[in-house]
């Protein structure tokens, strides 16, 4: 690491129970190109003892699941599950500070909700409310209409042995890794059809989020020498990039590919491949929970604080510090990263002016 300058960006606007605020970190890279990170803090209006499950930020709108308090079954095993404990899906408009109930389950138990997203103007998510033969299902609703959920597909539509996926979206397609009896494939759901894009790819865990950029997937394949990092375009064409001993949390944008090479041990380094010259650089930092690639920045979630490492200048800057609890898993959607701390959601954007 060339240089480290750590400081905390104070959010100067006072937050109420239903509000959001924004702050910026300008970092000038060249005279013609000034990149900046923008941080938006959103505080959701929650009832006491409720908690946020899955969430998705779409501009000024936040969509999220609410887990209701169900009591202490250990202390009182006679507690009856009732309608007030059912999982809810809500939206929150950060501009008008308006919350709306979109959907309420009537399952008779708390439903696990994960991996929300917006695809073709519909809000989708993965849930555990299917039949006994279905490990999971992916459902959708129209955020502007009050209706029952539409089942897009279930685990049985993929395979009998597929127990979990982590769906992602580019706004038009839903895509993910799926495992069938030890074989991992890249799958897509598009225009009402579920299809396999590529079989026999390697992923450290099938629960990893699949990286896609400009209609091209970044993944890996197993070889005699290790694992080959590859990209696959929409026509199924392969491009080889690097042979490595192991790979996980692979991410990509126009200029870089990044990955972890030792996912099981002490996480304090990320490998960076520069697409322009195929050069590889190893970036070391303090131990982190997970990371995200955002333009020319590596964003490190270190649980109690979040930092940004500039790949152009070699400087690392502290962006956020948790006053209590810790930051949860950080999700990447295009040029946006999101993480959560309690009922507060932090959205980190990458913006470039001068291009």
UniProtKB/TrEMBL annotation:
SUPFAM superfamilies: YWTD domain (SSF63825)
Signal peptide coordinates: 1-23
Domain of life: Bacteria
Record keywords, A-Z: Signal
Protein name: DUF5050 domain-containing protein
Species this protein is from: Roseburia inulinivorans
Organism lineage string: Bacteria, Bacillati, Bacillota, Clostridia, Lachnospirales
């Amino acid at each position: 690491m060339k240089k480290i300058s750590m400081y905390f960006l104070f959010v100067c606007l006072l937050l109420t129970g239903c509000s959001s605020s924004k702050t910026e970190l300008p970092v000038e890279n060249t005279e013609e190109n000034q990149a900046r990170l923008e941080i938006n803090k959103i505080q959701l209006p929650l009832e006491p003892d409720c908690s946020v499950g899955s969430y998705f930020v779409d501009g000024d709108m936040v969509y999220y699941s609410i887990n209701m308090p169900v009591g202490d079954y250990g202390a009182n095993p006679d507690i009856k599950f009732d309608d007030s404990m059912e999982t809810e899906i809500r939206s929150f408009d950060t501009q008008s500070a308006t919350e709306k109930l979109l959907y309420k389950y009537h399952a008779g138990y708390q439903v696990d909700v994960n991996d929300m997203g917006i695809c073709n103007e519909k809000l989708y998510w993965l849930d555990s409310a299917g039949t006994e033969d279905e490990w999971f299902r992916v459902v959708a609703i129209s955020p502007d209409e009050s209706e029952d959920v539409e089942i897009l597909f279930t685990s049985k539509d993929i395979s009998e042995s597929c127990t979990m996926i982590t769906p992602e979206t580019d706004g038009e397609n839903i895509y993910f890794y799926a495992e069938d009896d030890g074989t991992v494939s890249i799958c897509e759901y598009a225009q009402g059809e579920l299809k396999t894009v590529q079989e026999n790819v390697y992923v450290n865990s099938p629960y990893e989020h699949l990286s896609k950029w400009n209609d091209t997937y970044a993944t890996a394949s197993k070889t005699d020498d290790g694992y080959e990092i590859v990209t696959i375009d929409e026509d199924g064409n392969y491009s080889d990039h690097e042979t490595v001993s192991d790979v996980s949390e692979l991410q990509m944008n126009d200029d870089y590919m990044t990955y972890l090479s030792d996912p099981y041990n002490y996480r304090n380094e990320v490998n960076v491949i520069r697409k322009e010259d195929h050069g590889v650089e190893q970036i070391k930092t303090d131990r982190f929970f997970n990371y995200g690639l955002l333009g020319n920045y590596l964003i490190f979630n270190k649980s109690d604080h979040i930092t940004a490492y500039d790949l152009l200048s070699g400087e690392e800057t502290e962006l956020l510090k948790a006053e209590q609890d810790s930051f949860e898993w950080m999700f990447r959607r295009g040029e946006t990263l999101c993480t959560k701390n309690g009922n507060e959601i932090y959205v980190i954007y990458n913006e470039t002016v001068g291009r």
